[in-house]
Amino acid sequence: MTALLSVQELTKLFGGVAAVDRVSFALPKGKLTGLIGPNGSGKSTMINLISGLHSPTRGTVQFKGQDITSLPPHRIACLGIARTFQLLRLFGDLSAFENVLIGAHLRGKHGFAAACGGPLLTGAEERRLHDLAREALEFVGLGPRAGVKAKLLTSGEGRLLEIARAIVAEPELVLLDEPAAGLNSAETGVLAEKLLSLVERGKTLLLVDHHMSLVMNVVSSVIVLAGGRVLTIGTPQEVQADGRVIESYLGSGEIYRRHRAKREVSEH
Amino acid sequence: MAHRNTTLTLAAVAAAIVIPALSGNGYVIQVASLAAIGAMMAVSLGILYGHAGQLSFAHAAFYGIGAYTAVVLHTQRGLDFFLSLLAGAALAGLAAFVVGLPTLRLRGNYLAIATMALQLGISEVFVNAKITGGSVGIFGIVRPAVFGISLESPAAYYVLLALAAVLVFALAQFIVHSRPGRALAAVREDETAASVIGVDIIRYKVSIFTITAMIAGLAGGLFAYQLEYVSPESFNLDWSIAVLSMVIIGGKRSALGAVIGAVIVTIVTQLLFSMGELQFLVYGLWIILIMLFLPDGLVSIWRTSYRKVREAGS
Predict the structure, then answer these.
(1) For the segment B187-243, what is each residue's pLDDT rounded down to a tens digit?
(2) What are the sequence ranges of the domains in chain B?
(3) A169: contact with B, CB 8 A cutoff
(4) % of chain B with per-residue pLDDT over 70
(5) What is the 3-state secondary structure (H, E, C) of B14-26?
(6) Kind and range of the H or E element at B81?
(7) Which residue in B35, B162, B274, B296 has a CA-CA distance of 20 to 30 Å to A88?
(8) Nearest to residue B215, comparing CAs of B265, B263, B146, B167?
């Protein structure tokens, strides 16, 4: 099993408080890994550190054997890491299609000089990028909504559009920050299906989620964070049986409730 | 449909070039010439402000750099006319690059503040430098002949201005609808989201600031030979703000809107000229009204009614 991305002793202090504290893990190539933990456990900070939006206080991030610690976000994107945002960051005034077309930025080459040549010079590349954008939009099922401004989409559609925009440039690794937040169960089902089909296409995914319904059904392994540290790493079954995980979730009550519900079902 | 639109557009452009040129009326040619120059400026600032979301108050300074450079090189040193215009554009671009590189690394409206300072500083240089002729300026500018055609008559020179405006308009459209143009829209909408998609935001912001300053420099060079005289008051903050008002009045997200704004502001400025300082009050008032009631500018009226007509038709 080769690691596509590995994180070593990663630490991020905000005003002296460690949001992420000496975290180490590796993401196996071609797998879907879950990153879970209660609110404030450092999940989003991890994603921000890997994608370059924060630079770590200590520690390193390696991608395909290359040190990418503290590279600016666009350089990290160039190497093949894409991400979505927990709080949607769509280009609100632009259509769904344009959002995805901009996402395909790294698949094009033309700069301002070529642009000044007009369609004669840029036509072929433009057609290629438009095709890519159309495919990605159809993949997430938003084909019929292509012309709608992003700010007018439902939150479920917005989540799917974030994913389309992240995958259109064919990144190797996609970091998904709570893609199921605010989705109903039918929408979550559709999302799970899309994620599995991305893995089938050879993508490596890191799925952040704090309610576990989605994670436990689709991932091959789970990293559990608590208080900025790695609590445990294991298969979904191992993690769900781990007493410490249950305990760390007691504050939010999520696993505890699931745990109790299961027990009640088996007792009847 | 698309075919008919193209034909209509070409016809409108041809009419805008030919009718003033053949009018034989000096005043009409003068106003049309100033409108064509204003259109280049407004289209340039429209891309920077409306499309890329970066506000510059130094467009008049870049315009002035282009004007003085062209005049010094062509009229005083005898360099080829077009090369002198290009040198003026290049120098304006260089000034923007030098100011933009440190400023555009910062997020927020620092460019507006830095360009305001640049504009005031450059205005001082224009007034005090020896090469610009100080507050008196430079007289004795004669319109050139290019490719054996004399541009000495205002009508002939207007044709050159109008063609330059069409070229600038086309470039603006090409840039906006290209890969780098989309990257700029992304920067305007959300810099963080743009950066994780792979857009090098600083590079794109500095590039578009430099390119639009070059367009302003070109317009300035052309202006010097329209007026046949350059002096500092043509290149001060008032002109930067007038261009900004063209963009806002016409529509900041549309090159066509910028042109409409340029034509209207140019004509109204001529009409209000006798009012002196009071014209700025009128300026301020209608900018406020437009921002309140037509945030997408006058061009949005046309768009809305066009859509209504189409919907009624279908």
Answers:
(1) 999 999 999 999 999 999 999 999 999 999 999 999 999 999 999 999 999 999 999
(2) 28-240
(3) yes
(4) 96
(5) HHHHHHHHHHCCH
(6) helix B81-103
(7) B296
(8) B167
What distance in Å separates the CA atoms of residue B44 and residue B41, rounded to the nearest whole number?
5
Q: Where are the alpha helices (DSSP H) in A52-104?
A: 73-79, 96-103
pLDDT tens column, A223-261:
999 989 999 999 988 888 888 887 777 555 555 555 555
Q: Which residues of A touch B189 (CB under 8 A)?
A: 91-94
d(CA B16, CA B163): 10
DSSP label at residue B274: G
Which element (helix H / strand E) includes B141? Answer: none
Q: What value does the mean pLDDT of chain A take? A: 89
For residue B179, the tally of other CB atoms under 10 A from its CB is: 23
What residues form DSSP beta bridges with A13?
A: A18
Domain boundaries defined on chain A: 1-80+171-233, 90-168
A11's torsion region: left (phi>0), alpha (psi -120 to 50) or beta?
beta
How close is the nearest chain B Cα to the Cα of A149, in Å?
13
Place of tokens 């890969």: B179
Tell me the HSE value of A227 on the side-chain side, using a 13 A CA sphere.
6
pLDDT per residue as tens digits for the range B17-42: 888 888 889 899 999 999 999 999 99
d(CA B119, CA B236): 7
Q: Where are the beta strands (DSSP E) in chain B?
A: 145-146, 149-150
Q: Specify the CATH number of the domain A1-80+171-233.
A: 3.40.50.300
Question: What is d(CA A78, CA A140) in angstroms, rounded to the nearest whole number?
Answer: 23
Chain A, chain B: beta-carbon pairs less than 8 Å apart? 99
> What ipTM does the predicted assembly reach?
0.89
In this prediction the pTM is 0.91
Pick from B182, B201, B214 the residue to mutate for testing the A interface (most A CBs within 10 Å).
B182
B313 CB burial (10 A radius; 0-12, 13-18, 19+): exposed
CA torsion angle for B15, B17, B19, B25 (degrees, to 10)?
160
